[in-house]
Amino acid sequence: MNIEFEEPILGWRTLKEIYQYYLAKTPSEEGISAAEVIQRAEKTTRVREVAVQVLTLSPEQAAETLASIKENKDQADRMRSIALHIMTRDAAAGIWFAIGRADGIGKHQFIHPSAWKFLLTNIEKGAVGRDGVRFEDLRCAFAKDVPEAHPIRAAIRIAQKDSPSVSAVVAAQVVDSPPTAPFRAHNDGHHDGPGRPSNFHLIDREFAQRLERNLLEPSLSKEASVLSAWFNTAHPHCQPYQPKTIANRLRARYRAAK
Questions:
Q1: Where are the domains of the chain?
Q2: Strand (E) positions, 150-257?
C-alpha cells in the first residue's frame, strides 16, 4: 500500500516498546501486571539458582528448588505469551499499526492489520514474518496518535470493521498463547466426519508448536482448555472446539509428549 508515512504525534515506537507497553497493561490473576509478574519471577529464579550452586542441599531440597525455578520460568513465559497475543490481536484490530521494510530493503510499507493474524514476531530484532513474508526495521504507532485525515486511518477503519477489538482484561482471562496459524485456513479438505469440515489440524499445529516451545500445561485437561481458548479466540468464525473434545483427540499425543 503506497502511503506517505509522516511521523505520528508522539513519534514512532519500536516493536519492543509496543511489547513493553502491553506487558505493563496486561493484568494477571494476581491483580498485578504481566511485567511485574515477570520481574518477580526472574528475581526469584536468580536467587534460587544461586542457592542451588552455593548451598549444600539435600536431594529433596534440590529437586524442590529446581521445580520451583521451572514453575517461575513457566509463569513468566505464560505472561509473555498472553501479552504478545493481546498485542497482536490489537494490531489485527487496528488499535496500533506498523510499517516495515520488506526483507529489510526498500521503502517502508504499511503492514495490513489482517497480516497480524498469522505473522510471527521477533521482538528483539524488531521484525515479523512467516512463510517467506518478512518485514524488518519496524516503526510502530497507536492509531489514536495519527491525524484523523491521514490516509492510513482509512485502511485501519476497514480492518476494524472486520476485526473488533478485545480489551486486555477480557483477552487475558481467556487467551493463553499467541495465534500461530493463518486466520482463514478453514475448509481446506479436512473433515471430522461425512460432510462436516474440520479445523482440528489447526489445533494439531498449535499443539506441536507449543510442544516445541516447551509450553505444554502440566495436565491434559489444562492443555485442552488452553488450546480451546486459543482456537476459539484466534478463529472466531470457525465452529468452536470444547476442551473435552480436544482432550479426547490429543490424549495419546499428550501422553507421548510428557
A1: 1-164, 176-257
A2: 191-193, 196-197
- CA 220, 222, 224, 227 torsion: positive or negative? negative
Which residue do the cell numbers 495465534 mark? 179
Query: Collapsing DSSP states into helix, strand and coil, what is residue 142?
Result: strand
C-alpha closest to that of 108 among 223, 226, 231, 7? 7
Is the backbone of residue 101 left (phi > 0), alpha (psi -120 to 50) or beta?
Answer: beta
d(C-alpha 157, C-alpha 121), whole Å: 23
Residue 182: which of 136, 229, 119, 228 has the closest Cα? 119
Contact 76, 23 (CB under 8 A): no
Residues 72-111: pLDDT tens digits?
Answer: 888 888 888 889 988 988 898 889 999 999 888 888 888 8
pTM score over 0.70: no
